[in-house]
């Protein structure tokens, strides 16, 4: 199945939020407190994406980028890149529709993210308990650069790793 990768817009907020919620439920059950994945999850993700995609970030260099992977008009994955004050770019989200993981959608999205960040370090934060995601990022060339405590909605502290992708030399 071929997927088109395109930039997302504010109009995509509802479908991104729905996929984000479904991915969290599938991936994070047993990793994060159950209340994080409870009844308010879909509404919280909807509000988050409506806000993220409607804010004016000013300078284009400061504006996050939402990338969508679609096939036959259906959203099957997304990635969200957030420029940071230190010059790096945070891969804040990379999610693939449950049931489609392992089929190359995440790899295509990650490649698009890396292509967008050719002259900047791309980094991400991943829960230490998320062995599948860690293996995915390590296979893709990410290097662990930190470990710390991350914070999930509701003020839940969870151990996470930071992974970074080195800047690619021109022509690679």
From TrEMBL:
Q: Enumerate the PROSITE patterns for this protein.
A: GNAT (PS51186)
Iron-sulfur among the record's keywords?
no
Kindly state which keywords UniProt assigns to this record, in alphabetical order: Acyltransferase, Transferase
Q: Which SUPFAM superfamilies match?
A: Acyl-CoA N-acyltransferases (Nat) (SSF55729)
Query: Which Pfam family is one of this chain's hits?
Result: Acetyltransf_1
Show the GO MF annotations: acyltransferase activity, transferring groups other than amino-acyl groups
Q: Reply yes or no: does the keyword Lyase apply.
A: no
Q: Where is the N-acetyltransferase domain?
A: 3-168
This chain belongs to the protein called GNAT family N-acetyltransferase
Classification lineage: Bacteria, Bacillati, Actinomycetota, Actinomycetes, Kitasatosporales
């Amino acid at each position: 199945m071929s997927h088109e990768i395109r930039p997302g817009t504010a109009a995509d907020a509802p479908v991104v939020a729905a996929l984000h919620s479904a991915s969290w439920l599938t991936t994070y059950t047993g990793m994060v407190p159950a209340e994080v994945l409870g009844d308010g999850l879909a509404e919280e993700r909807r509000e988050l994406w409506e806000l993220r995609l409607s804010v004016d970030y000013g300078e284009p260099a400061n504006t996050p980028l939402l990338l969508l992977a679609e096939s036959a008009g259906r959203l099957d994955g997304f990635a969200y890149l957030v420029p940071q004050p230190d010059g790096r770019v945070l891969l804040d989200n990379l999610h693939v529709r449950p049931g489609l993981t392992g089929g190359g959608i995440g790899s295509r999205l990650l490649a698009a993210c890396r292509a967008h960040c050719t002259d900047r370090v791309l980094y991400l934060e991943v829960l230490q308990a998320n062995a599948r995601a860690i293996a995915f990022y390590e296979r893709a060339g990410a290097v662990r650069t930190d470990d710390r405590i991350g914070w999930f909605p509701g003020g839940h502290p969870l151990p996470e790793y930071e992974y970074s992708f080195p800047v690619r030399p021109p022509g690679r």
